[in-house]
Specification:
The protein has a domain of 93 residues. It is elongated, with a radius of gyration of 31 Å. 61% of the residues lie in helices and 1% in strands. It is built from 24 helices and 2 strands. Strand 1 and strand 2 form a beta hairpin. InterPro entries: hAT-like_transposase_RNase-H (IPR025525), HATC_C_dom (IPR008906), RNaseH-like_sf (IPR012337).
């Protein structure tokens, strides 16, 4: 039985409340995965791309289907003198990012595809006989490649965004607001552009994203307000930047209303942390009521009492001042200009200085100045905005084949798994022999060893090839993505696949 994320969130709020560990009744509990939202929106938008993408897809599929066709296409590449070590990759229909990578890999070979269409009658006949709706698909034209080029530029925005928000070595919550604003602006420009196909795609994407992020008309309950609070907790931005950005994106009135909503909600979170810390606006201070007496003479005990009275007096004064100043800690943070050199350099310095700014490190150093807000920042900024890292830890989808998975037989998959096991082996002679010559030599050595073992294996048995190059135990590791692995796949397919190879694909649900 499938259960929606909203239902799970409701039950989680109830459970946390029962445990007494919820914050503000779970108001800011649910954070939707950015990567999933982008995936849904872009997949929906690609439905408007028309013939151009389908023609490229069929062309790539035809080229990748057999070794003979691949060799013919490589001959066309050499004839056109296209200098590229890469090769075309086929996409998976349910993965928009693979469609982007397919188009990006095919675009440099535009002239090679045109040469193939002129010289190979079977290729041209296949595309002309292929149906697209009620009409013939046809071969790719110069207009198709122009359209594909523009589409690559547009999809790159979403692809790069997905990569950034899926990072695991840095916090990402305070980055989301900038990305959403940039995305909203760019999509609005595309929708108003003269390119009809791109305009239709932009309208569909914007309509989908509006359900989760955009707030140009009504309050969007699905947009977690922690995304806005994270901007305020960035000492380079604070409320001033948030207000300016929201007004630029959503207009004067709507932007102002959103800022006021966030400014009203953030003190509630601040008050929660004040209560949790024990003292308003500061870290809890443990007061020792009993004065420890010095051992020794009576004079020592008298001095201990005087010292204890003095400590009590100073303690009361400090607590009084702390309570007085802590009431304005949040206001002080919003109003004061940070004279920190790191913040200044991140604002007016180079792009590298901005990139190197460590927001968690800054709050760690500012804990004495803003004790309560630093606790808030620590908890809020580390909220992940993508489940990619968590899912990859439990998923086996990317461990056998990389993102360029195409027509691979079970024997090829076995070869790849064996290769990975051998390469990971610390005492592998194959790796040692090629360690000074780069990864390509390593893969060539491993591939050659696998071919030799396959040739010497008894007929009808494939298990004998599972032993490592030095007689190691059968492979226990699975393949991880490698920048050169796609070339090994292509070489092996060229020499071992045939016309009847099947295409293996992964299917994702359309919605969360």
């Amino acid at each position: 039985m499938l259960v929606s994320i909203d239902v799970v969130a409701i039950h989680m709020k109830e459970q946390l409340k029962e445990w007494g560990s919820d914050i503000l009744d779970g108001k800011y509990l649910q954070m939707r995965c950015v990567a999933h939202i982008i995936n849904l929106a872009v997949k929906d938008g690609l439905k408007e791309t028309g013939k151009s993408v389908e023609r490229v897809r069929e062309s790539v599929k035809w080229v990748k289907s057999t070794p003979t066709r691949s060799r013919k296409f490589k001959d066309c590449i050499e004839f056109e003198k296209i200098a590229s070590k890469k090769f075309v990759s086929l996409d998976v229909a349910t993965r928009w990012n693979s469609t982007y990578l397919m188009l990006e890999s095919a675009k440099p070979f535009e002239k090679a595809f045109q040469t193939l269409a002129r010289n190979d009658k079977k290729f041209k006949k296949h595309l002309n006989e292929k149906k697209y709706g009620n009409e013939s698909l046809g071969i790719t034209t110069s207009d198709d490649w122009s359209s594909v080029g523009r589409l690559i530029d547009y999809l790159k925005l979403f692809y790069d965004l997905t990569v950034r928000v899926s990072g695991t070595s840095y916090v990402t919550l305070h980055l989301l607001f900038d990305e959403v604003c940039e995305m909203y602006t760019m999509i609005s420009e595309w929708a108003d552009g003269i390119d009809f196909e791109v305009s239709c795609m932009a309208d569909r994407i914007k309509s989908k994203l509006a359900k989760y992020w955009f707030e140009d008309e009504l309050e969007n309950s699905k947009m977690n307000r922690l995304c806005y609070m994270a901007v305020i907790l960035d000492p380079r931005r604070k409320v001033e930047y948030l207000e300016q950005a929201l007004k630029n994106v959503y207009g004067e009135s709507r932007g102002k209303a959103l800022v006021e909503e966030v400014k009203d909600g953030m003190p509630l979170v601040f008050d929660h942390y004040k209560h949790r810390l024990g003292l308003p606006g500061s870290s809890p201070i443990v007061i020792q009521e009993d004065v420890q007496e010095h051992s020794g003479s009576g004079d020592g005990k008298k001095k201990g009492k005087i010292w204890g009275d003095f400590r009590k007096m100073k303690r009361d004064a400090i607590l009084k001042e702390t309570r007085k100043s802590s009431k304005s800690e949040f206001d002080r943070y919003l109003e004061e200009e940070e004279d920190d050199e790191v913040v200044t350099r991140a604002l007016v310095g180079s792009e590298e200085d901005e990139y190197k700014f460590d927001i968690l490190g800054w709050w760690s150093r500012s804990g004495m100045k803003y004790p309560t807000i630093s606790e808030m920042a620590r908890d809020i900024l580390v909220v992940p905005i993508s489940t990619v890292a968590s899912e990859s830890a439990f998923s086996t989808g990317g461990r056998v084949l990389d993102s360029f998975r195409t027509s691979l037989s079970p024997e090829v998959v076995e070869a790849l798994i064996c290769c990975e096991d051998w390469i990971r082996s610390s005492d592998s002679e194959l790796v040692a022999d090629g360690e000074d010559e780069g990864d390509e030599v390593v893969f060539q050595n491993v591939y050659a060893a696998f071919q030799a073992r396959s040739a010497s294996a008894p007929a009808g048995t494939s298990g004998s090839s599972r032993a490592g190059p030095s007689g190691s135990s059968p492979a226990t590791h699975v393949l991880v993505s490698s920048p050169t692995m796609s070339q090994v796949e292509e070489d092996y397919v060229d020499n071992n696949s045939d016309e009847n190879d099947e295409t293996y694909v992964d299917v994702e649900p359309d919605e969360e």
